[in-house]
Amino acid sequence: MTIQKNDDASAPVLSVVIPCYNEGENVPLLFGRLMPALHGLGVTVEVICVNDGSSDDTLARLLAVQKSEPSLRIVDLSRNFGKEKALSAGLFHSRGQAVVPMDADLQHPPEVIGEMLAKWREGWDVVFARRDARTGQGMKERAFARAFYWVFDHLSDVRLPREVGDFRLMDRRVIDTINEMPERSRFMKGIFAWVGFNHTEIIYHQGERAAGTSKFSSIKLLRFAFDGLTSFSNFPLRVWGVIGAVISSLAFFYILFRIIRTLVWGIDVPGYESILVSVLFLGGMQLLTLGIIGDYLGRVFDEVKGRPLFIVRRLYEHDGRE
Fold first, then answer.
1. What is the residue extent of each domain of the chain?
2. What DSSP element (H or E) covers 51?
3. Which of 6, 30, 33, 209 is most deeply packed, by most CB within 10 A?
4. Which class does domain 14-215+310-316 fall in?
5. How far apart are CA 316 and CA 312, in angstroms?
6. How many CB atoms lie within 10 A of CB 22?
7. Which residue intervals define the domain Glycosyltransferase 2-like in the entry (predicted)?
8. How far apart are the two ends of the chain, measured CA to CA in Å?
């Protein structure tokens, strides 16, 4: 994938990128709040909605909105590639001098985009939008999020800003840098943090989901968290060398103990239970180690194949171009 920097003087000042997967109910609600907020900014804007293989009427509703909103561009992917790839597609097609990714469910209030734009005009390359609370989440989800941030910060060289999701403003230089990154395992929160640049933040109140339900189950969230960790840390690989050394040391001292005991008290019959426990424990550790190595090896396999991050079936422009 060849990335070309956007030097077009006619490019919009602001691009808003919105991945959409089965968000048909939210489309009219979203644009009912988004467009008035953008029109009040006094700058040229474009809205890029990425239809990530939706099976409902998301695309039809987006096309209906496009008839009255010339700034809306629709990137229709050939299938469901997942939110991280859909977000990458939106960033790739963005042309604005500043870019704001946001969700389609209105948990990210479009009214705060103006505040982020003001910070950007002060010279900041990245403006984080930090939520003041996790609205609509129970104690289990909040505890899981805190645990993930703690583990990620201690095992990775990249620190994720607390309570900051994809909702942020990024300068064109930041977007061009992200688009040039060739990796296919796209943990976007980590990528956003890894590229650096000078940054500041604003505080916002996260709204309730406007309609529909979250597409992330507990299993998907757990897998997403593990993907994020293995994308930015090789600690899960290195730690097994330490564990192996500890187990080998314990086994060595146990062998010495058995030899000394045999020389002093003679040969006895070892217990069957201790042998069984040792075999099962070491076998389980080996299988767990192989599983983690297999996950990293699978990532290498995906990178070597070099398949594109996403496939665009059609790009809908307001002037009829595709």
1. 14-215+310-316, 235-305
2. strand 45-51
3. 30
4. alpha beta
5. 11
6. 19
7. 15-175
8. 19
